[in-house]
Design goal:
With 157 residues, the protein is an alpha+beta fold. Helices cover 27% and strands 43% of the residues.
Length: 157
């Protein structure tokens, strides 16, 4: 088993509080609304939305995956940190789990979204640079879709 880690940052002109509220705190409702091809629905299997909560994500028809189950490891509204681990799903071929930490920080009049993902592979499975790049692009496109929604709806969140 190995661990592959990658980090990336995406700047935004949206204030960190508003971005965190939309992207993280209400992401279960907002993501299926703004990117229905990627997310069909998100349901809480166990918990209250805080650390320890288990969620089942149903991906949209535009996704090559059906479902994923993740556990919230940390949710800090003050520090704007969200950490979760994907523990089940058809995307985990050759991968035991994926842990992602998202931190939204103030940056000028907007914010910067910092994301770190750790892929815990099984056996000798390797993750290619192409797959890492693909993951970064998908993550960035989801974020940009939320950002576009916030620009179009300045009074929400």
């Amino acid at each position: 088993m190995g661990v592959i880690q990658y980090e990336h940052e995406v700047p935004s002109d949206i204030a960190p509080e508003r971005l965190f509220k939309a992207f993280v705190l209400d992401g279960d409702n907002l993501l299926p609304k703004v990117v229905p091809s990627a997310f069909k629905s998100v349901e809480i299997v166990k918990g209250d939305g805080k650390a320890g909560t288990v969620k089942l994500i149903h991906f949209g028809e535009g996704s090559s995956y059906k479902t994923a189950k993740h556990v919230i490891d940390e949710l800090d509204e003050v520090k704007k940190v969200f950490k979760y681990t994907v523990v089940e799903g058809d995307a985990l071929v050759g991968i035991e789990k994926v842990t992602t930490t998202i931190k939204i920080e103030a940056h000028g009049s907007g914010s910067i979204v910092k994301s770190t993902s750790e892929y815990h592979t099984t056996g000798t499975h390797e993750i290619t640079e192409e797959k890492i790049k693909e993951g970064k692009e998908k993550s960035k496109s989801l974020f940009k879709a939320v950002e576009a929604f916030l620009h179009a709806h300045p009074h929400e969140y």
